[in-house]
């Protein structure tokens, strides 16, 4: 199996297809274009088997809140948010093909993306899980990957001096976050 960053439009489409198969409620625009999208600056891990078939993928990018604010005229943008977003990333989507789960693939993608984020100067990584997923298993998964896993209803603390929570129609089941080491 090979673990790389998705870099082409063909990769992006395959990753999107995996996420659409895995999650019932995501938009067809959920996967930004790698290298081209400077608003979301995504890092998209992809795991492929020896035949080149996609086994798993994980997407992390500029937090939704900062990307949304970037659409406002400069004088209306909250001060500091865009600057803080240079050092914070939101783990947005993680999916492993059902027949490949429980074999360490998800953990390897988290480790890989963490090293990519460190090399980009990101210092804090966070995400949340929605209640429609297997919440107990995901708590275990993220804790094992070294995240602080918050209790149900516990708000994300300010990270990099900013509040990154976004108003969801439905509250997340839990948030998770971790500090990353500084790049050498
Ligand atoms: C969650 C998910 C990405 C984990 O990937 P994975 O490759 O199955 O996870 P790993 O094999 O690296 O498992 C690491 C740990 O998480 C646990 N785990 C969590 N969810 C699991 C699941 N659904 N199936 C199997 N193991 C799971 C494992 O027991 C393992 O713990 P252990 O090593 O102490 O036994 C994957 O199961 C998946 O795609 N689930 C559906 C989509 C989803 O919920 N994504 C997360 C959105 S927030």
Automatic annotation (TrEMBL):
Looking up InterPro entries in the UniProt record yields: Acyl_CoA_acyltransferase, GNAT_dom
SUPFAM superfamilies for the chain: Acyl-CoA N-acyltransferases (Nat)
- Domain N-acetyltransferase: residue ranges: 1-181
GO terms assigned for molecular function: acyltransferase activity, transferring groups other than amino-acyl groups
UniProt keyword terms in alphabetical order: Transferase
Protein name as annotated: GNAT family N-acetyltransferase
Q: Lineage, please?
A: Bacteria, Bacillati, Actinomycetota, Actinomycetes, Propionibacteriales
């Amino acid at each position: 199996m090979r673990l790389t960053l998705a870099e082409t439009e063909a990769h992006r489409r395959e990753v999107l297809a995996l996420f659409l198969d895995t999650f019932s409620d995501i938009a067809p625009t959920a996967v930004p274009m790698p290298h081209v999208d400077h608003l979301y600056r995504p890092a998209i891990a992809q795991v492929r088997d020896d035949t080149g078939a996609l086994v798993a993928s994980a997407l992390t990018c500029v937090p939704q809140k900062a990307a949304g604010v970037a659409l406002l005229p400069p004088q209306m943008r909250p001060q500091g948010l865009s600057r803080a977003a240079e050092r914070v990333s939101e783990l947005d989507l993680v999916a492993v093909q059902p027949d490949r789960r429980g074999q360490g693939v998800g953990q390897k993608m988290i480790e890989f993306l963490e090293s990519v984020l460190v090399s980009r100067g990101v210092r804090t990584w966070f995400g949340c899980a929605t209640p429609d997923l297997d919440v107990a298993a995901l708590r275990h998964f993220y804790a094992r990957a070294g995240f602080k896993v918050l209790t149900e209803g516990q708000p994300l603390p300010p990270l990099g001096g900013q509040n990154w929570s976004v108003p969801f129609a439905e509250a997340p089941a839990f948030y998770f976050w971790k500090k990353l080491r500084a790049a050498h």
